[in-house]
Amino acid sequence: MAKIKQVLNSVTVEEAKRKRICHRNRKKHAISGGERCLVVRDPASGGKRNYCVECGNEILDVAADDLHMLRTDLNA
Ligand SMILES: [Zn+2]
């Protein structure tokens, strides 16, 4: 049987080696070296955006809701 396709390839968690900027709030949310951050890649541009833990959790909350909606729709 064929491998199950993974659709969340563009989202990963990384530990910042040095300071990064949170894309959602560039002025107030710094990601310091040693801290974890959510990294979202854009396959079209090859670029990536970093989000601090607070913003990353909000992004994952929305994604969890979206996944739940998709599953509900699929099984309707
Ligand atoms: Zn942030």
Structure description:
The protein has 76 residues and is of the alpha+beta class. The protein has one domain. Helix content is 29%, strand content 25%. It has 1 helix and 5 strands; from the N terminus they run βββββα. It has one helix spanning 53-74; strands spanning 11-15, 20-21, 30-31, 36-41, 48-51. The strands form 2 sheets. Strands 1-4-5 form a 3-stranded antiparallel sheet. The longest helix is centred in the last third of the chain and has 22 residues, at 53-74. The protein is globular and about 45 Å long. The two termini are 26 Å apart. 11% of the residues are buried. The model has no long low-confidence stretch (mean pLDDT 95). Bound molecules: zinc ion. Zinc ion (ZN) binds next to α1.
Major beta sheet summary: 3 strands, antiparallel
Tell me the helix content: 25-40%
Number of strands: 5
Strand content: 25-35%
Shape from CA axes? globular
Order of helices and strands: EEEEEH
Tally of separate helices: 1
Mean pLDDT: 95
Could you give the topology of this structure?
Blueprint lengths: L10 E5 L4 E2 L8 E2 L4 E6 L6 E4 L1 H22 L2
Antiparallel strand pairs: 1-4, 2-3, 4-5
Can I get a quick summary?
By secondary structure, the chain is an alpha+beta fold.
Features:
76 residues, alpha+beta, three-stranded antiparallel β-sheet, two-stranded antiparallel sheet, 1 helix, 5 strands, globular, binds zinc ion
